[in-house]
Design brief:
Layout lengths: L5 H7 L8 E5 L2 H4 L7 E18 L10 E21 L3 H8 L5 E9 L4 E8 L13 H9 L2 E2 L2 E2 H14 L5 H13 L1
Parallel strand pairs: 1-5
Antiparallel strand pairs: 1-3, 2-3, 2-4, 4-5, 6-7
Helix pairs in contact: 4-6, 5-6
The structure holds benzoic acid.
The site of benzoic acid has 10 residues, from α2.
Length: 187
């Protein structure tokens, strides 16, 4: 699959059909909210875990030296905590462009903090996309992140900002916190 997923996202889902759209953020969407939203709540999805397994050529790295950013991997019985946003379909023009490096929108049930479950969307980078890097040891992931930067800044700041945002909502993510700890030791 090509690097730029904007056209695929546009053709896969007709968002004007939705009465309301909930978007679940598990990575930079939690702390970099550069889009308008109608409502926002802490939320979780089931069956997935966050992993720094996606290459970043356009935000936290370059084509020559890609950084590592998050995607979700199927993980039976797991909950991934994040933040849900109720949005208008227009925001996807912006977000599809922002997240064009291999991410496709998928439908998923989102569990909101008031116990409601709503149909929503996530951006997911699957192993068949051209920017996918896949699994590596904590040390190797942290080393790549430590040495990477791109137009959006240092790759390690992506990790630090996400870890701080998770702490603020009292969530623990062992993968994220392990990478953070390893990065801090290198700094
Ligand atoms: C998110 O924060 O949900 C997100 C992560 C990676 C790409 C797009 C969105």
């Amino acid at each position: 699959m090509a690097f730029d997923t904007q056209a695929i996202n546009k053709s896969r889902q007709n968002l004007t059909d939705y009465d309301e759209i909930w978007l679940f953020g598990y990575g930079s969407l939690i702390y970099k909210v550069d889009f308008e939203f109608i409502a926002s709540e802490y939320a979780y999805i089931t069956g997935f875990s966050r992993r720094f397994w996606q290459g970043s050529h356009d935000h936290r790295g370059t084509p020559e030296y890609p950084g590592r950013v998050l995607t979700l991997t199927p993980s039976s019985g797991e909950r991934c905590f994040g933040r849900a946003f109720k949005v208008n379909h227009e925001v996807f023009e912006h977000l599809d462009h922002r997240e064009k490096n291999g991410y496709l929108r998928h439908e998923i049930p989102i569990h909101l903090s008031d116990n409601r479950t709503v149909k929503g969307l996530i951006y997911l980078a699957s192993p068949d996309n051209a920017a996918y890097l896949g699994e590596a040891s904590i040390k190797d992931i942290a080393t790549q992140i430590f040495n990477s930067s791109g137009p959006s800044g240092l790759n390690r700041d992506y990790v630090y900002e996400l870890a701080a945002a998770l702490r603020e909502q009292d969530e623990v993510d062992e993968h994220v916190f392990e990478i953070e700890k390893t990065l801090v030791a290198m700094d």
